[in-house]
Structures are given as C-alpha cells and as structure tokens.
Amino acid sequence: MTHQNIPNMEVSSLFFYSHYQKKTYRGLRYLCLYIDFKVFLLSGLLLFSINSARADEWIYRMQQGDNLWNLTERHLTHLKFVLPLQRLNHIQNPFRIPPGTEIRIPVKWTRQQSSSALVLRVFGEAQLKRQGHPQPLPVVDGMQIFPGDAISTGENAYVTFEFADQSILRLQDKSELRFERLEILGNNAVVSTEVNLQKGEQKAWCPITLQ
Which helix (H) or strand (E) holds 61? Predict the structure, then answer.
C-alpha cells in the first residue's frame, strides 16, 4: 500500500488542482477535494460528482453479476428505489447491465452509518475539544475521533490521523481542525470524510493500490 502525496494546504487556498485530483488502480478510484477551506476525502468503487461544496451523488461501477435489484438491496435504504434508480440512469433492463456501466446513486437514497478517525501519531502537545467535555482533552496515540471533535496543535507539534478508507491526514503545528462528517455509505462502498481547517496547515494522502 502506498499513498498519493498531497502538498500542504493553507487556509488562504480556495481550490486545489482544479478542484480535485483522481487516480485509478484496479478499478478503485480515490478522490481528494479541497473546496472552501474544507477537505473532502471520498473513496471506494466510485466517482463522486460535486454539487456546490458537497457530493450529492456517487457513481457505482457495475461488476459481473450485478443488477439494479441486488445493487439496491446492498447499498440503498429500500427496494422502492429500484425504479427511480432505473429511471435516473435510463436503464432499459434492470437485470441486464453490462459490467463497467456507471450508475448514478443519490446520497440521500443510500444507507449511511457513522464512522470515526484514528489518531496514529502525536508529536508534541495537541488538544481535543469534544461536546460534553467542558475541558480540552490531551490528544494521545490510538484515540478515536468522532464528528464534531476539534483538534488544535501547539508549536512544533503535529497529529496524524487515519480514516476508515486508510487515507491519512496530518495536522501541522499551530493549526486547528474540526471533523464535520465521518460516514460510510452503502455496504462499505463509500467512505465520506469532511474536515474543516480553521487555522494553519495540513497534509493529506489518499490510498492507492498498485498492481
């Protein structure tokens, strides 16, 4: 496993590499988005389309043996979405779809479950602000991070995080980061991460599987 190295992002940056950078290996696509000072790490067997600063759809690439019924059963909240999915994608026969066909799926139809991030490494002093805790907590190796948590680093300190899709983010010194959204969409098909850099710098690495 290697990672695509993404250069430092500063608070003053608005767009990065024309909004996204994408690499494809073994049919896996990983997408890193930097929009309005936020970082979106979106990965899986998919390609996201963007509406404003959020992804409201994801694209599933059909595999051998897939059809709209078993796709809906695995990844969507209800079988009632088979017909709307067929109409949205202009599919004539929901049981016969060639492998490689890309299917648009609205996020609002998709199963969603909460996820978390893991603190891999802390160097120096860092603090965690968490709802329900009146005082900041010290950040330590192995700590779980949940939506709503905010991390700040001191001088010459950094914190490295790992997300459910094995993407990595490192918060540099004298920086503040808030975790807005940590989700898994479908049956582990998509990991969707949104963090908001309040101050300072960060580095992100998206996982790439080599042949």
Answer: strand 54-61
Alpha-carbon span 78 to 207, nearest angstrom: 31
pLDDT of res. 207: 62
Is 206 in contact with 33 (CB distance < 8 Å)? no
What is the C-alpha to C-alpha distance for residues 9 and 165, in angstroms, rounded to an integer? 21
- Token pair of 197 as six digits: 């850099």
Secondary structure class of 81 (helix, strand, coil): helix
The alpha-carbon radius of gyration of the chain (Å, integer) is 19
Element (H, E) at 71: helix 68-75
For 65-108, write each residue's pLDDT tens digit: 999 999 999 999 999 999 999 999 999 999 999 999 999 999 89
DSSP string computed for 125-177: -EEEE-TT-SS-EE--TT-EE-TT-EEEE-TT-EEEEE-TTS-EEEE-TT-EE
For residue 175, the number of C-alpha atoms closer than 13 Å in the C-beta half-sphere is 24
- Is residue 58 within 8 A of residue 48, CB to CB? The reply is yes
